[in-house]
Amino acid sequence: MEFSGFRVIKEALTSHKGWKALWRDPAPQPDYDFVIVGGGGHGLATAYNLAKTYQKSRIAVLEKGWLGSGNIGRNTTIIRSNYLLPGNQPFYELSMKLWERQEQDLNFNSMVSQRGIINLFHTDAQRDAYRRRGNAMHLTGAGGTLLNQSDLRKLVPFLNFDNARFPIKGGLLQQRAGTARHDGVAWGYARAADKLGVDIIQNCEVTGFCIKKGKLLGVETTRGYIGAKKVGVSVAGSSSRIMAKAGIRLPIETHVLQAFVSEGLKPTIPNVITFGAGHFYVSQSDKGGLVFGGDIDGYNSYAQRGNLPVVEEVIESGMALMPMIGRAKLLRSWGGQVDMSMDGSPIIDKTHIDGLYFNGGWCYGGFKAVPAAGITFAHLLATDTPHDTAAAYRFDRFNRGALIDENGAGAQPNLH
Amino acid sequence: MIIPHPLLGPRDAQEFTYLGDASLMARPDPYSESAEAEFCNYVYLRDNPAGIHRELWFHEQGDRSWLIITRDTLTHEILGAELVSADKLKAGL
């Protein structure tokens, strides 16, 4: 089933009776060439790319709950490629380029909106840091414009420019960044993968790995044993739990990140804005709600909910940045479990077990990486060699001291 | 979260800073032959359990004592709190 303007009009005239389910609900086969554990954004994008490149393989995605029920369904939908370090920036720029043609690739409306992201600065030192970051972005073709205060006053006049403690001096704008419809991304990849023959098996939890003499033979699941030549694990906050079943300890702690949405308002925030003095980022959804968030709570958590001190801190940061939101009501807040790695950067690598591959450690930034993680993880699974842009995301970087630490915070996951 | 401090009674978790898994108290032997690999594991690898977790909290905005909190990471329920010094003595560290 292809989506098109013609089709929408035709269905509108025939009571929408022609729409079919977007993917099948198959029973698991006894074995597959590739099994992807985790039916979220990364897992589905990986399966789609495997199927697209290696169309004859038999591929399954195993999802413990329902498709897209993890972090792909609960993030703040920001896509951007405004990183600094050489190991990171080319990867995120690849992802940004893929976002730009996502809807054409998948024939699905992901509502990619390149409304721009502005990182505000408040001091001379921050201005220097953002100028450096902007230059690093230009090296990969990501673009980037340094705005001064008068530019900003025209673009986002509602900010608290003259805050006595944190006056806003300017910002780094990446115009190509923006937002995407997070659920739509999962659905688009699921539909496209299913069309290429991928079995998406929901309500199928992996309970163990079958490993003989250092070689992976398959996975034990709640729906029986499934044999597999290669297994890729892509389960975000549950990374440590799943990999522990294969006896592997990870450089990861699972933490809780909260997010918030206000009641629907008229269009007021034209882009994505991040506060440079506190940790606060905000955009406005197409339904009108202000979508915002801040820091992680800071302690290990699998609860998928946070505590009130961080709620207070995030709201205070928002009020300091744009006092106008004080009149808006908070509609809801929620939490997701994020796989905080020891240097704040992800891992896409083989494990020491033959046939077992891992993609995780995305901290709170996995959503923007979905398209590139799909391509690079599929490349690794299929060829056993890392993709050029993901070559730095190896397990052994911790042993080699080759950390990719954007924040310079050291091996303390709650500081990244 | 309210932390039941053994000396000061119930205290708001906001008064504390969090370090992580309590097993971090047991540092590897720097003189062993495999010290480099052991320290690498010590610094970077974590068990990261879903469920009961023993972890180090520092009462920074209070009496500046280190506590070992036993907490369920699935529910945030706090099951116990003890001073590090007593625990260290027990463990012979």
Structure explained in plain terms:
Chain B: InterPro entries: SoxD (IPR006279), SoxD_sf (IPR038561). The complex is a heterodimer of chains A (416) and B (93). Chain A is an alpha/beta fold and 416 residues long. Chain A has 2 domains: 5-77 and 182-251 and 343-415, FAD/NAD(P)-binding domain (3-Layer(bba) Sandwich); 112-178 and 253-341, D-Amino Acid Oxidase, Chain A, domain 2, CATH 3.30.9.10. Chain A contains 11 helices and 18 strands. In chain A, strands 1, 2, 8, 9, 10, 11, 17 and 18 form an 8-stranded mixed β-sheet that branches. In chain A, helix 2 (41-53) packs across helix 10 (370-383). By secondary structure, chain B is an alpha+beta fold. Chain B has a single domain (2-91), classed as Folate-binding superfamily (Folate-binding fold, 2-Layer Sandwich), CATH 3.30.2270.10. Helix content of chain B is 19%, strand content 35%. Chain B has helices at 35-44, 84-91, and strands spanning 2-5, 9-12, 17-21, 52-58, 66-72, 78-83. In chain B, a hairpin with a 7-residue loop joins strand 4 and strand 5. The N and C termini of chain B lie far apart (29 Å). The interface between A and B is medium-sized, with 25 and 25 residues.
Features:
heterodimer; A: 416 residues; alpha/beta; FAD/NAD(P)-binding domain; D-Amino Acid Oxidase, Chain A, domain 2; 2 domains; eight-stranded mixed sheet; 27% strand; B: alpha+beta; four-stranded antiparallel sheet; two-stranded antiparallel ribbon; 6 strands; 19% helix; nucleotide binding (chain A)
